[in-house]
Amino acid sequence: MIRSIFQNLARRWSELSLAVQFLVAGGFGLLVVMLLVGAWVTTQIRDGVTRNSAATTALYVDSVIAPLLPDLRKSEELSDSVKQALDETLGQGALGKRLVSFRLWRRDGTVLYSKDSSLIGRRFDLNDHLRSAFQGNVAAQFDTFDENEEKERASGEPLLEIYNPVREPWSGDVVAVTEFYEIATDFKATLASALLSSWLIVAGTTLTAFLLLSGIVLRGSRTIDDQRGALRRQVSELQGLVAQNSALRQRVQRASRRATALNERYLRRIGADLHDGPAQLVALAALRMDSPVFTGDDHWEGNRATEVAMIRKTLEDAMQEIRGICNGLVLPQIETAAATEILRLAVKEHERRTGTSVALTLPGQLPEPGASEKISIYRFVQEGLNNAYRHGRGKDQAVAAGMKGGRLFVEVSDGGPGFDPATRVEGLGLAGLRERVESIGGQFETLTGPQGTRLVISLSVEEQA
């Protein structure tokens, strides 16, 4: 259960952006650092202010009390006159108002004098501050009381407890320690102001560092996100290109297989055209050459000239059909011609052969396509107009070309009765054209209906320099 909870938290954490992770982790870390540094700084400030204030007060008190004390190295107790002098000094004047209590300690822990007379002569265990003071150090603590200081705690005033060593004038040795509680209202306000200032400085410094680091991390995170997004887009585009290349490769393979079959069909059609046309005529001429007119006697002399004329006519018809077949197979010189010239040439050739008219619509200028595109355009117009003449009866034949979406389009249309694409299989010429156009990255579209038929191809062309 606990493991799944941690795994869930880790998963959610990994889903956060780098900037959010830094804001959370960095903010928490800087907060901990701020608290530790702030606590250490305020402790140092508290100790320093307490020591300085205690040293100043101790010096003042020592200057007032020291002249009243006897030689404490020799005296085990204070005389009544000394006690009376201390009572008078500590009970009136500015010093008396500042000190809530006062004790004079002997090294063995005996109270030689106290404003509370019940403590005089009593012996207590030395605490750490007394030991430090007997070693010659001024010790102090603020608003801290032990079990023997109920009177001071009950005063309700902020008190600064000071332990000041009393030194022998000629030797400098510590012979006693004075312990007194000073009313520290001003000290408390000063200390609070110093602590507040230190916390504000630490917090402001931490916040500034956090904001600067956050700005750097946010900018870096934004840059990483932008680069990650760009990388994802590039990967997506690359995947699309790979898929497109795969599809194109498959199309090329299919087109190659279909082109092989179409070429075979073309060869069969050419063979059939030669067999049914010129071959039959030549065979007829050969049969006539074997007629009795040429092999018999002079009885057929009068019909020989007529037979020769018929053979000549038959051979001329065969030659004409052969030229027609050749004209359909051999392209004119279109490699160096512009796209508009190719379209005009195909239209004029169709008009010459069929005796029909074709409406040609061309823009002022077309880009210069490559050789493969030029051949495809010529063959498309040639086959399209042939179909318009055969199936559309040559009605409203038209050819148009232009640019659309950065691609060159050519359209051949007629006003014939149209056909049903679902029931009619594409002819050999159109099927070959479709394969030719698609093999060079073009698109072939057939639109037909009662109002006529439109054949449209679009090619991606780059202008040749």
UniProtKB/TrEMBL annotation:
Swiss-Prot/TrEMBL keywords: ATP-binding, Coiled coil, Kinase, Membrane, Nucleotide-binding, Phosphoprotein, Transferase, Transmembrane, Transmembrane helix, Two-component regulatory system
Domain Histidine kinase/HSP90-like ATPase: 375-461
GO molecular function annotation: kinase activity
InterPro entries reported for this sequence: HATPase_C_sf, HATPase_dom, Sensor_HK_TwoCompSys, Sig_transdc_His_kin_sub3_dim/P
Catalysis: reaction(s): ATP + protein L-histidine = ADP + protein N-phospho-L-histidine
Stretches assigned to coiled coil: 238-265
All residue ranges annotated as the Signal transduction histidine kinase subgroup 3 dimerisation and phosphoacceptor domain in the record: 268-330
PANTHER family tied to this protein: NITRATE/NITRITE SENSOR PROTEIN NARX-RELATED, NITRATE_NITRITE SENSOR PROTEIN NARQ
TM stretches of this protein: 20-41, 196-218
Statement: the UniProt record of this protein carries the keyword Coiled coil: yes
Assigned EC number: 2.7.13.3
Organism field: Mesorhizobium opportunistum
EC class name: transferase
Protein name: histidine kinase
